[in-house]
User: Which sequence fits this backbone?
């Protein structure tokens, strides 16, 4: 004989309020829960502004006369305010060099290469 499982999606877990006093109590509890949820959402919104939200990447060959593919790259990692970093990796036959530059409001205090500028532009306007 096969065992049949029944799912009670519509089964009520709480008892129905019996009078107006119980209804009001449930409404108050719901209002408190809603206030907590709104507070948590606001906190998440504030924190999210500082997380990486925008990414732009450019692959290229920094030395056109050398053999090899576009193994070098620049990647911009920015938050909602266009603040973050640019990481550039230059690949040559002798080795690899990695550079990092800070970005504030979409610009860096350090001089950016054209590839780094393109990476920032791609991150801001994909």
Assistant:
């Amino acid at each position: 004989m096969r065992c049949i499982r029944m799912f009670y999606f519509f089964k009520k877990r709480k008892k129905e309020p019996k009078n107006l006093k119980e209804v009001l109590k449930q409404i108050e509890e719901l209002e408190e829960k809603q206030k907590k949820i709104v507070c948590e959402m606001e906190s998440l919104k504030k924190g999210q502004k500082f997380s990486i939200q925008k990414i732009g990447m450019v692959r290229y060959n920094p030395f056109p006369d050398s053999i090899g593919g576009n193994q070098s790259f620049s990647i911009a990692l920015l938050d909602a305010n266009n603040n973050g970093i640019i990481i550039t990796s230059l690949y040559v036959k002798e080795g690899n060099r990695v550079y990092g530059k800070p970005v504030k409001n979409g610009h860096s205090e350090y001089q950016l290469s054209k590839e780094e500028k393109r990476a920032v532009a791609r991150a801001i306007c994909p």
Notes: The first strand starts at residue 54 and ends at 60.
